[in-house]
Amino acid sequence: MLKMNHDLEAALKEYIKLLEHEEYYEAHEVMEEAWHPLRLSNHALKNLAKGLINAAITFEHIKRNKKNVQEKAVKVIASYERYKHLSSDEIEHALLFRQATQKIEALKMQHKEMFDVLVS
Fold first, then answer.
1. Averaged confidence pLDDT in the chain
2. How many CA within 13 A on the CB side of residue 112?
3. Cα 87 from Cα 85, distance rounded (Å)
């Protein structure tokens, strides 16, 4: 369990750094690697981690200007939207999860034309 927590902490730090460098696919990969043991153990933070994975992929779609990018972006970020509320002061690695969600929220604002239904 200790190793899993360390892996999650390291993954969150790397995820945030990769988002800052617009390396969204790589951010997705880092979090997905940490998510697999969470998912298999039914860890309480598995859904929040999965939401962050999907959020990163959303911005990779936008970066690559994929066909039907707005439709894909809104669909893929839905997992993040569904679970972002789990990022609270009471969870493990709360500061890192909060920083990650703040990065995603800032990216949503940066691309608000994609998320006009989600950004107020």
1. 90
2. 6
3. 5
What one-letter code names the amino acid at 26? E
pLDDT in tens, 63-91: 999 889 999 899 999 999 999 999 999 99
Residue type at 32?
E
User: Once rounded to an integer, what is the mean pLDDT over residues 5-12?
Assistant: 84
What distance in Å separates the CA atoms of residue 4 and residue 76, rounded to the nearest whole number? 26
Neighbours of 49 (CB within 10 A): 24
Dist CA 7 CA 58 (whole Å) = 23
How large is the average pLDDT for residues 103-120? 82
User: Around Cβ 97, how many Cβ atoms within 10 Å?
Assistant: 24
Task: Please spell the DSSP secondary structure of 35-77, one letter per residue.
Answer: HHHHHHTT-TTHHHHHHHHHHHHHHHHHHHT-TTHHHHHHHHT
Tokens of 10: 């390291």
- Confidence band (pLDDT; 50, 70, 90) for 2? very low
